[in-house]
Amino acid sequence: MQRNEVFQKITEICRDVFENDDLILTEQTGAKDVEEWDSLTHLNLISDIQEEFDITLTLEEITKSENLGELTDACMRHLQKEAQ
User: Fold this and answer.
1) With left for phi above 0 and alpha for psi between -120 and 50, is residue 54 left, alpha or beta?
2) I need a surface site. Which of 58, 59, 61, 62 has the fewest CB within 10 A?
3) Containing H/E element for 14?
């Protein structure tokens, strides 16, 4: 799976979790940029991403990912490991 496909899927998941189909997201978008992004929705977001890609992000990856781009990078690392 290509990186842009992973980011697009994460964007779709975000719109679903935040219940906002018009939400404009970039790789620099973080929790401070989305009003609905609180601790509970963050847990839902991570859970849905892990389920979608069938991966398990580490606690460090979850806490150090400050924006959607870094979250995409973390997902890509897991997907690339599985592809090998």
Assistant:
1) left
2) 59
3) helix 3-17
Structure confidence by residue, pLDDT tens digits, 47-64: 999 999 999 999 999 999
CB-based burial label for 14 (10 Å; 0-12, 13-18, 19+): buried
Which tokens sit at 10?
């994460």
Rounded to two decimals, the pTM is 0.94
- Token pair, residue 24, equals 């404009």
Token pair listed for 79? 């997907």
Q: Positive or negative, the Cα torsion across 78, 1, 54, 34?
A: positive
Each residue of 7-34: pLDDT tens digit?
999 999 999 999 999 999 999 999 999 9
